[in-house]
Amino acid sequence: MGIVWVPNDHPESCGSICFVVQYTCWSSPYRARFTWFRARFVPDTNEADLYHGARAQAVPIFGNLAYVSGIWFTSDTHFGHNAMAATGKGWRPFATVEEHDEHLIERWNAVVRPDDHVWHLGDVGGPRSDDHALACVARCNGHKHLIAGNHDAPWPGHRHAHRRQRTWLEVFDSVQAFARRRVAKNLEVVLSHFPYEGDRGEPERYPQYRLRDKGLWLLHGHVHDAWAVDGRQINVGVDVCDWRPIGLHEVHTLIKEGS
């Protein structure tokens, strides 16, 4: 996560030049990454434009601080899934599957930089759409990590999941059933495709594959637009996240608001 200082006396025309120190923790021992950015305050908005090389990204302003997240979360992209977007029967507001997929890729790449890390919490594609779904993911920026969902071939609930691991690892840096991550000092969350409890309908599906609630916040997908936040459950699916991954700072804000 990086921090941009935005001065109060920012010029309203050409903007002001600021410096960013971006810190990224990949593994132990910790390694720090330092990057120069230019930041320009956008008049009459609550955003700043950050320029990393030739790329721009709008980020929210909190007081005088703009937070730049290098870690993102998303779920339920359903690339190539006809039931998600097909004329006359799609769940999502797109005329065709092609329009749906292109829009999600565009929204992803609008916020994620090539060296960011994205945790995809499952249901990358749809039934029999593996090759197409993986091709779409390959066009998305960032280092991708998969928490497999029930529509994904390497999901452990499928009998032959082990046979598909190698293929999916050609696109994803890691594939696993769940994970535990730190989102702030003294604040950890667990990641799973499934919520602790609840579903988008009855009955509750796949109870045998769900984590038990032991007091940690959970980031999940699976339920589409059934809720955004439900207790300690945060739905990071694209249906409730403006069709894009959400940043670490957004997750932290949701947890603070819900605590």
The portion of residues assigned to helices is 10-25%
Series of H and E elements: EEEEEEEHEHEHEEEEEEEH
CATH topology of the largest domain: Purple Acid Phosphatase, chain A, domain 2
How many domains? The number is 2
Can you offer a commentary on this structure?
The protein is α/β, with parallel strands linked by helices and 259 residues long. It has helices at 97-111, 130-138, 165-168, 248-258, and strands at residues 2-5, 20-22, 38-41, 47-52, 55-62, 65-68, 71-74, 117-120, 143-147, 174-176, 178-184, 187-192, 217-220, 229-230, 233-235, 246-247. The strands form 3 sheets. The chain has a 6-stranded antiparallel sheet, with no helix packed on it. The protein has a 5-stranded mixed sheet with strand order 10-9-8-7-16. Strands 11-12-13-15-14 form a 5-stranded mixed sheet. Strand 4 (47-52) and strand 5 form a beta hairpin.
Short description:
The protein is of the alpha/beta class and 259 residues long. It has helices spanning 97-111, 130-138, 165-168, 248-258, and strands spanning 2-5, 20-22, 38-41, 47-52, 55-62, 65-68, 71-74, 117-120, 143-147, 174-176, 178-184, 187-192, 217-220, 229-230, 233-235, 246-247.
Helices, strands, pairings?
Elements: E1 2-5, E2 20-22, E3 38-41, E4 47-52, E5 55-62, E6 65-68, E7 71-74, H1 97-111, E8 117-120, H2 130-138, E9 143-147, H3 165-168, E10 174-176, E11 178-184, E12 187-192, E13 217-220, E14 229-230, E15 233-235, E16 246-247, H4 248-258
Parallel strand pairs: 7-8, 8-9, 9-10, 12-13, 13-15
Antiparallel strand pairs: 1-2, 1-6, 3-4, 4-5, 5-6, 7-16, 11-12, 14-15
